[in-house]
Amino acid sequence: MLTNLLLAAFIAALLEGGWLIWVPIGLAALVGGPIDELVGDDVTPAQWGWARFCDFNLYATLPLLVMITGLLLRQAADSSNWSALLGPTIGTGYF
User: Fold this and answer.
1) What's the pTM value of the predicted model, to 2 decimals?
2) Distance in angstroms (rounded) separating the CA atoms of residues 52 and 48
3) String of b and e for 56-88 (b: at least 16 CB within 10 Å)?
4) Mean pLDDT of the chain, nearest integer
5) 3-state SS class at 37
């Protein structure tokens, strides 16, 4: 669920623009990886309710990534300055 929350934060940052684009990228790089490593892998089978929750999060990722890609393409069409596209491009690639 953390990934989808960070994706939603990145979408909001892309809509807002400016330096806010770097906040979800930094959070994903500095917080997402260490939390994933601390929690570790769960080898027990998920109960039905948790399996549905995990499936929901898995399938929610694709529309979020499509929105991010669309926002990046919109910014690329609107901006002729490559430095304005650096953050959105790095963030889109990272996510």
Assistant:
1) 0.85
2) 6
3) eeeeeeeebeebbeebbeebeeeeeeeebbebb
4) 91
5) helix
